[in-house]
Structure formats: C-alpha cells, structure tokens
User: Which sequence fits this backbone?
C-alpha cells in the first residue's frame, strides 16, 4: 500500500534545528494580544469616553498626558506591541494570499519597513517630546495650562 | 486520544463539513472578520502614529491635522474603528481560549455568540456618548 502525505503537511519539512520563529510568532500574537486588549481599551476609554471625548483631543491634551511617565510607558508599550502584532498579522496574510514568492517578498519588505520606521519614529517622539515648547506668542494658548509663561 | 465523530443526520452533514472548526459557519466567519478587522486596524495604526508624531513638530501642526478629523464623517468612521477593535479584541480572546482551554474547541461556537453579545453591550455604551460628542461639535 502506498503512503500519502498527511493533509495540510508542509511542502518542505519543518526545520529541526535553530530557533522556531513561527512558534514564537504564534506565542507572541497571543501574549501581546492579551496585553493590547488592556492597553487599547484603556486608551480608548480615556481618550473617547471621559470628559468631552474626541472633541477634547488637541495638543494640550496629548502634552498633558506625555508630561507623565505613566502615559509615556503606556503609549510606548502600545506602540511596540501593536505594530509588531499588526506587522506579523499582515505577514500571515501575505503568506496566505501573495500569488508569487517575489510579490510576497516585496510586500513583507514593505510591512517590515513601515513597522520599523514607525516604531523608531514613535519612540523618538515619546522620549524627545517637550510639552511646553517655545512657540510664537499667538500660539501660547495652544499649550497645556501648566506651562510657565514664556 | 481519538474521538469518534458523532453520527450526523444527512441535513447536518451538508450544512457543516467536519474536521476543522475553521470550515463553515461561525468558526469560519469569525476568522474572516478577524482578518478584515485586523487589516483595517493595521492601516489605521500607521496613520494614527504619523498624525500623533506631529506633536513633535508644533502645537499648531498637530491641532490643524486633528482638526480635520473633527467632523461627522470621521466621527462615524471612529464608530467603525472602535467596532472593529472591540470585535478583534474579543475574538482574539476567544482564539486564545480555543488554543489553551481544554473545553475551548467544544464551546467555540457559544463563545462566538458571547463575543457578539459583549460587542453589542460595549458598543451600546460607546456609540451614544461618542456621537453626542461628535455632533455637539457641529454647532460650535
């Protein structure tokens, strides 16, 4: 009797040595997902449900949050966890739907580049941000109320 | 341990092929919705980080861009975004339970309806408050 491959078996056998990145990716999606539920639900509640909600979001509001290490860490965690979670999810879709290996490589390169650039950009913004920057006199009213007069 | 499949009636057999919870009905549609909402949230996230990065440019630049979001069309878009996020979050927790909880596969269909039920409750809490904020801006 001839044998056939088990259904859904990989066309190439799984690597037997080295780090199993697919496994760690799978674990990462679940671990980061649980943390992101807390971080993003908290983010949405504070920004959209309290006070005047989306209407109240402006420079002074965001600057007031980033003046505290608590929200800096909160948003930094969201930035890293969500972008890596999203980029890895998009990679999964490309693996499933890209019609040629070449197209898949290009799309995965674009996903990696956009995630890496935004992680670096966002991290720099959070750590170099000044809630009370020097502004022209006519823009002073845009700053948070705790900023000293210029 | 191998479990013999329960005998199915002819009607049931045509309705749902066996072998995987991802084939047909709630198991499949939750997977489809998870992908669609995931992609939508990813592209929003790219834009959201770029617009928030404007706080590093100047208060005027950030307020100008955020100001363009403060209209009823974007307000309705935010309802769709929050709806997508809540579904993706709750269904993600359902997936984790399917993977790690011994009875997860058995209750996956029930958990799908719980996801939709909790989604309705959370949206009922969010949508009226958000739309009041959005549309009270119109008169100003």
Assistant:
């Amino acid at each position: 009797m001839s044998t056939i491959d088990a259904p859904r078996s990989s066309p190439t056998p799984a690597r037997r040595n080295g780090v199993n990145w697919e496994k760690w990716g799978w674990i990462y999606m679940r671990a980061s997902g649980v943390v992101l539920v807390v971080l993003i639900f908290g983010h949405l509640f504070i920004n959209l449900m309290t006070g005047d909600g989306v209407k109240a979001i402006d420079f002074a509001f965001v600057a007031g949050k980033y003046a505290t290490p608590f929200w800096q860490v909160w948003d930094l965690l969201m930035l890293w966890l969500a972008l890596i979670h999203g980029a890895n999810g998009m990679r999964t879709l490309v693996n499933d739907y890209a019609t040629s290996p070449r197209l898949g490589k290009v799309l995965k390169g674009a996903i990696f580049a956009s995630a890496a650039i935004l992680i670096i950009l966002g991290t720099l913004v959070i750590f170099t941000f000044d809630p009370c920057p020097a502004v022209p006199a006519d823009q002073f009213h845009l700053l948070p109320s705790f900023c000293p007069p210029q | 341990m191998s479990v013999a499949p329960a005998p199915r009636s002819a009607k049931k057999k045509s309705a749902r092929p066996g072998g995987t919870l991802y084939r047909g009905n709630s198991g499949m549609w939750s997977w489809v919705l998870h992908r669609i909402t995931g992609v939508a949230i990813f592209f929003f996230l790219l834009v959201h980080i770029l617009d928030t990065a404007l706080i590093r440019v100047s208060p005027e630049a950030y307020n100008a861009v955020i100001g363009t979001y403060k209209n009823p069309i974007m307000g309705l878009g935010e309802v769709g975004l929050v709806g997508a996020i809540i579904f993706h979050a709750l269904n993600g927790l359902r997936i984790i339970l399917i993977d790690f909880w011994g009875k997860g596969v058995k209750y996956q269909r029930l958990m799908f309806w719980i996801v939709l039920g909790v989604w309705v409750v959370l949206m009922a809490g969010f949508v009226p408050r958000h739309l009041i904020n959005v549309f009270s801006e119109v008169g100003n």
Notes: The first helix of chain A runs from residue 21 to 49.
